[in-house]
Write a structure and sequence with these properties.
The structure is a single chain. With 202 residues, the protein is mainly α. The protein has helices at residues 2-34, 83-90, 98-104, 128-131, 154-171, 173-189, and strands at 40-46, 52-58, 108-110, 139-141. The strands form two sheets. The chain has a two-stranded antiparallel ribbon. It has a two-stranded parallel ribbon with strand order 3-4. Strand 3, helix 4 and strand 4 form a beta-alpha-beta unit. Helix 1 packs antiparallel against helix 3 (98-104) and helix 5 (154-171) packs across helix 6 (173-189). The protein is globular and about 45 Å long.
Length: 202
């Protein structure tokens, strides 16, 4: 099951990278013209078994945005989000570079989204319940992302992620295929693209 998932990830990743390469170049040029700073935003995340890896995205915020404002969390009309970044986020295009992570093997197409290393605390202090979601590779999309995305708080995300692990162990790549189709619907609807600040009400 793991080997099949890896073959699908690697094959699909290479195909997607080839297909999206013209968009990579175009988006990179637009980002450079729009604001000062690098094209890519690389951030340490917690992966399978709590191993730290570098996740890559297109930069959508000003440089060092995490050290200002609301830190990790963004909101509607957040001034730290660049003009181009706003549209990249709306269409989820900022996530495309993670195809490289998928090909590398640090991520999968489908799996729990990887948290920032310090977002949930120290991995060694996690409960067994919290560690369930780390039994599989993190994904570009996942069950939590198609069930509410950024409208969910971390407790709910963990609940959905653990459910994904359970269903994947039972259904295998069939579960991944269903989530990928649901992801297309979520992306095209452009819903729940802004994270909720902890304690914030709708």
């Amino acid at each position: 099951m793991v080997i099949t998932k890896r073959i699908i990830d690697l094959t699909a990743g290479i195909v997607l990278l080839i297909l999206f390469s013209p968009f990579f170049l175009l988006i990179a040029i637009i980002i450079k013209f729009d604001s000062k700073g690098p094209v890519f935003f690389v951030q340490d995340r917690l992966g399978k078994d709590g191993v730290v890896f570098s996740m890559i995205k297109f930069r959508t915020m000003v440089v060092n945005a995490e050290q200002s404002g609301t830190g990790l969390f963004s909101y509607c009309d957040d001034p730290r989000i660049t003009r181009v970044g706003k549209y990249l986020r709306m269409m989820s295009l900022d996530e495309i570079p993670q195809i490289i992570n998928v090909i590398h093997g640090s991520m999968s197409l489908v799996g729990p989204r990887p948290p920032v290393t310090y977002e949930l605390g120290d991995y060694s202090d996690f409960t067994e319940y919290m560690k369930v979601r780390f039994q599989v590779k993190p994904g570009m999309t996942g069950l939590a992302q198609v069930s509410g995305r950024n409208d969910l708080d971390w407790n709910k995300k963990i609940e959905y992620d653990n459910l994904y692990v359970e269903q994947y162990q039972r259904l295998g790549v069939i579960e991944d295929i269903v989530i990928l189709f649901r992801t297309l619907i979520v992306v095209f609807s452009m819903s729940n693209i802004i994270e909720k600040i902890p304690g914030e009400k709708k």
